[in-house]
Amino acid sequence: MIALNMEHNPSVTPMKVLHLEDSLLDHQLVCRALKKANFNFEITRVETLEAFTQLVNHSAFDLILADYRLPGFTALDAWSALPTNSVRPPFILLSGTIGEAAAVSAIHSGISDYLHKDDLERLERVIKRALEVCQAHAAKEKANRELALSEKRLAEFASYLQAAIERERAVIAREIHDDIGGSLAAAKLDLAWISRHQTEATIEAHVQAAIEMLQHAIGASQRIMMNLRPSILDQGLFAAIQWLATSFEKRTGVKTYLRTNNEHLVPKKDIQLTAYRTAQEALTNISKYAACSQVHIELSDAENVLTLEITDNGKGMSGQEMAKTEAFGLRGLQERAKTVGGWLDISTREGTGTSIILSVPLGPPADSSHDALEEQFQ
Predict the structure, then answer these.
(1) How far is CA 328 from CA 118, 147, 336, in A?
(2) How many other C-beta atoms are found inside a 10 Å radius of the C-beta of residue 219?
(3) Within a 13 Å sphere around the CA of 226, how many CA atoms are in the beta-carbon half?
(4) In the list 156, 217, 313, 337, which could disulfide-bond 353, CB 3.0-4.6 Å?
(5) Is 337 in contact with 358 (CB distance < 8 Å)?
(6) For 2-143, CATH number?
(7) What 3-state DSSP class applies to 365?
(8) pLDDT band at 373 (very low <50, low <70, confident <90, very high)
(9) Full-prediction pTM beyond 0.70?
(10) 232-378: what fold?
(11) CB of 317 within 8 A of CB of 279?
(12) Residue 296: is its pLDDT beyond 80?
């Protein structure tokens, strides 16, 4: 193993070159070509695969130049010996024996380039191109890593927001139940007492009107509480979806059909809540935009995957509507699905309706007494 230092520009960090070559004369020719190209470099020559492997596993190199055929191995063996846990440096074949077909095959395997030993005047151009490609690849890998990290952080933030929203909904629902609901119920009882203890017809009419208004307010508060904190999930996912479907049909007049293969489906509470919110948001969107006459809801746990499909026969959505920046409802559902390891598919076409499908792989049955999401609603 021989290391040489060829520094023509001390102000620049020398390029570290590893030369896999068993011929000292060929090595000297390469050094001369590098020097002629005014590269600032440090070069190390090795002859064996063992020495090569030891060096690349313990030192970093900016460039690898390699003869193709060496005693007992080829440059492809050296390429395979490079560490895979980091970006590989440019790897250029310098050989006088390799054929064109073998050179092309080597490049397809990932090797940067090939140059015949009789054509070393082109070495500068080949090296610069290989370095540029390597730098571009490294920049792309860095950008991909940063993008993946950013997406991970956004997903974590979305999950945190969803949990925070559900906690806040639970607090509001509790306040409505304890304060507003209790006050309305007390006022209704007082009005009922007044109704029983007075006989004047005019006052009785006003009292009955007030009782009806209070009853309406109590019903509205109960619906709001149900939307904020779906306590009906305590009865199971099918019962909760059935309540949504019945309420939707009663409110809109749109015929709604619900089908399931398991009425006693009990996934984990966070999955139940995700499915419930998906159905709730889908039905809300249908009532606002679909202009449909029928809705079909299918709930299934076939092949240990929870599948919730809500389909309408309405006007559907165009590609432009799907891509609207303000279409946060559907995007929110997609992000919510990701938080439980699932995904959301939306199939739509103008004039043929829309189908929203939630799919979530199911784990072992949940023990509701130990479920954290259930505890946060208590």
Answers:
(1) 63, 21, 12
(2) 11
(3) 14
(4) 313
(5) yes
(6) 3.40.50.2300
(7) coil
(8) very low
(9) no
(10) Heat Shock Protein 90 (3.30.565)
(11) no
(12) yes
